[in-house]
Input
Amino acid sequence: MKKVLCILSLALTTSFTFAQDDAPETTPLEITGSGDIYYKYDFAKVPNIPTSFATDQNSVSLGMLDIALKKKIKNISFVGELSFGPRGQRQSLLNDPGVVYDVNGDPIASTSGDSFHIQNLYASYGVTDKLTLTAGYMGTFIGYEVISPVANFHYSTSYLFSYGPFQNAGVKANYAITEKFGAMVGVFNDSWNVYQADFQKGLNAVGGQLSYVGDKTSAYLNFLDGSVSGTIVDLTASFQLTEKFKLGLNAADFSNEGDVGYSGAALYPSYAISDAFSLGLRGEYFKFKEGSGDNKVTAFTLSGNYKINGLTIIPEFRLDSNSDKVFFDSDLAPTKSASQVLLALVYGF
Output
């Protein structure tokens, strides 16, 4: 269910047909991208809600500038996507594992910085019209929301997105079982969100996906397991219930050693009031497992999308409630709830 810009960055992972007999020798280089800015105000007058992005309080701030390139020569395709700015750099990418290891696997130096901005860098080979092999650094196949704001209805992100994987580096095979059903299996680096594995562990994680894409319904059942990354099972689905009403779903469970992890679910109803304006709600329940704190969160986000000539204007109100006092009020006293408003401008090209 990746859409808009993510159709570019993930087209080769969720599309299973590569015409070989009638395909032109080459296609023109495709260039797409986006840029976004936002203003956010937390009613406690301090930054509170700990999900990804839109973190600056009472400030007109940058999201990111994103540029994606795609080139296809017969049954070979290449995708590269670069991002610049907080949303596409330090808030979503770990530039490297942050540590250099010696031959015994012991850490000897830190290498973390903020200079790499690669969202996607991979190539695909259409072996047949049903089987495609892909290798490189790829936007994750897990989850409903993505990094690029043009592909999300809401500008702020869910807890399921923020605590899940963003990217996976590895090799995978997609197979079109029928016109509507597909399957993917792959091996991936030991950790999420890094393009460089621990050399002693290497391709330590195994992942898979079963998909169904119909005219009005799509669903993806995802799985990823590794001794370092842990085990995550994820379901995403989208239902176009009427011409104007759409319902999205995301549910996930993640576990790692020491009972670390989370489970949760989110619903995404949206209604197209006109061709230019839609209104949508995200309702989410998220629970940390005992090793991660054992607290629970409910979050409601109401957003509008007004589209005009490639620009999407997103006014948003958000209310989060936690079972523990993890937020702060205007007097900096601990409290169980937090609320914020924001206005985002997102331009896609």
